[in-house]
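Hi, here's the filled form for the chain we discussed.

Project: internal
Contact: R.S.
Residues: 247
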Amino acid sequence: MNKLFLTALASTYLFAQTEIYTYTVFMDYREYENGSVIDKDYTNFGDLNGIGIFYKSKTKPLKFTLRAEFAGGESTYEGSTWDGTPLKNRQSGVYIFNFESGVGVNYFFLTLGYREWNRGKSNYSGDYDEKYYWPYFGIRYDYHFFFNNFAFNPKISYQAAISPKLKVYLGNEPVLNLGYTDGAYIDLPLYFKTGNTVWYIFYKYQYWHISKSDYAVLQTSSDRTLIYEPESITRNQYLGAGFVFRF
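And the returned structure, exactly as it came back:
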C-alpha cells in the first residue's frame, strides 16, 4: 500500500501540475535610522489573507514554473507624525502582490518576478498610501523528498530587485528610487494524498532588505520638502494550504 501511495504521489511531479492555495501572512516590516527602529508595520495571522496559483510544466529537459499570489487586509503601524509625535494606527487597504516565472534544469531554476506592496492608510488626518514595487531576478533550488506517507518539497531562493521604486500618494506624488534591494525565501510544503486528492500545507519565510533611497521633492499645497526612504527590513511569514491538480 505504501508503494502504491508513493507511486501515486510521485506521479504528481512527472506531469504538468497546478496548485491552488490560500494563506495568511504574519508581516513584520521595520524602518531603521542609525541602526535603531523608527517605525514598523505588522500583522498577526488572520489580518492579511490571500490566494495563490502555482503552475509547473512537464517539459524536459527544461522545466517552467509560474506563480501568482495576492493578499489583502489590514496592518498596524507604529511610528510617529511628521513632527515626531508617537503614533499607532490601524491601516486598511494593505495588499501584497507577487508574480514569479522560472525556468530550470533538475533542481535549479532561474527566476524573474515582480513584487508590489501597498502599505495602506488609516483614518488619521493627513495619512496617505505608499506603494513599493520592483521587478526582480533570482535563483531557486527546488527538491523533492518522498516518504512512506507524504512528500516534502523544500524551495530556497535568492532574489535581487531591478530598479526598485516607492511611490508616495501625497501632493505631487513623487517616486523615490530605492537603494540596493535584495531578498530570499524558504518555502516548506508538505504533500499528502487522500483518496484521489493530493493536498498540502506549507510554511514560507520571506526576507527583503531595502537600502536608503535617493532624495525626492514632495510638493504639497502648503510646503515643499526633501524626502527619502530610510533603510528597511521585511520579515514575512506565511501559513497556507492548497490542492494539486495534475494533467
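Let me know if anything looks off before we file it.
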